Amino acid sequence: KRQRVNVLVSAVIWWCFLSDAVPNIALLGSGGGQRAMVGLLGSLVQLDKAGLLDCILYLSGVSGSTWCMASLYKEPDWSTKLETVKNKIIRRLSGPGVRWTDALAKLKNYYYEKDIFSLTDVWAVMLVTSYVKEFLREIIVWEIFLFCFTLQTTTNLVPSSDILNIHAAVMLIILIVMNKNKMKKQDEIDMLYLQGNNICCRTALECIIICNTNLQCILYTMHPHSPPIDECYQVLLKLVDMNLDLLKGTDPSACDQFIRTTLTDLSGGQRPLIRQLEKLNDDKTAGKKAAKQYVMQYTVDVCDYFSLELNICRCMSQWIWGRHYNFLHNMTDDAVPAALLESETRDYIDAGLLLNSPYFSVLREERDIDLIISLDFSDGDPFMTVTQTAETCKKLKIPFPEVNIPSEDVEKPKDFYVFKGQNAPTVIHIPLFNVVNCGDKIYAWRKKYGTSRVPYSAEMIAELMQVSGKNFTINGAKLLEQICVVAVAKYFQAQARQI
């Protein structure tokens, strides 16, 4: 790869044949859902056509950009046949989506295969799959491990994790009041007290029903062919009534029959593995104990049927994302921070929630990066990623150029920015939508390709590919010029070290 870079750059500056003068170049793709996936693909295709793709040593991304990367890396030597790979990806994105039954089957596989199940699995299967139109197990690997930051542990919480807990509480409250109706006037109550109330058996079962109903609403929104919401709700409601029948000493057989019939219908005719109801003897103390034990096991059997849904509810209530066993747990190494050693598990989230571009994956000193090409597909401020990176690097004393953005450019960004600094990598920043490729319709383009949009049509994909590629069609000469400048600087630095 370095030899091919040599050949390319030597066409402009002959002395770059020396290997020490070949610049290390990183291409960054920010997050942005399907907009980032299609935008990165269009950018790579145009770089290839301009003969500049071989200049890239590192390709790094977060969130939506990793969806594109996961698709690319399924093909060996994808960069040598990018046009073919591109066509295959576009055909898939323009085709039919994954069937609900297949998505649910895949999610169940994740649930039974993994030691720790989390919302990351739900997100990858139910949401990402609806956009990429296939199952990409690699997405989870790219998202969690390669481009992520640890925000929370199970025993010790860093300050930022408090925000996560607040978000979880707010999310559940929003779900419960989605119908916009105020049932009755209620005095303000401390959130911890509200959580404490959930300890009693009746309230806990009702909370399961609320969580399950809200979960079914969410899944139905993404997959209209999901199991009926009302039937799932009624099964759990009857389960509560069955427990109440036991406490009141009444016959629960009607509830039992309803539960069995409904579960059989939901499973497509397969009889649920629930023990047969026996006549409960309420006349003797021993009989009451046996009845309680029986109904308890019966409840467990029904909950096992809904094990996946209930586990998702548990992950929602506890806001569990990307939980994995901590391989550093109980290690004895002074070089490793104590916070990384204490907890048995660690929780990881998409890096895009912290910084929507993978700058720090390439800013390690060992990378020795000379030039960073930042493609920003963010929804909103197109300069937030580069300005936040500059601020963080300044605090951590990591070499990074000063970033000064004219105030008028925030709403009307240009198509090509170059930031330079002493003993720091050169940074080229390219907003996806700008005044050059979108004219005065930047806001309209952002709205049309919003992050929460339904999967793009074939026409939208082709249009976005063209717009993202145009940034390199117009600026190919400027990019090559900056590569040459960096190569010359590196050449003279190498010569100075030899003197």
TrEMBL record:
Keyword annotations from UniProtKB, A to Z: Hydrolase, Lipid degradation, Lipid metabolism, Signal
Gene Ontology cellular-component annotations: cytosol; nuclear envelope; nucleoplasm
| InterPro entries linked | Acyl_Trfase/lysoPLipase, LysoPLipase_cat_dom
Citing just one GO molecular function, the answer is: calcium ion binding
- SUPFAM superfamilies (UniProt xref): FabD/lysophospholipase-like
Note the superkingdom of the native organism: Eukaryota
| Record's signal peptide | 1-21
Q: Where is the PLA2c domain?
A: 1-499
Keyword Translocase attached: no
What is this protein identified as?
PLA2c domain-containing protein
Q: Which PANTHER family match?
A: CYTOSOLIC PHOSPHOLIPASE A2, CYTOSOLIC PHOSPHOLIPASE A2 GAMMA
What is a biological process (GO) this protein takes part in? glycerophospholipid catabolic process
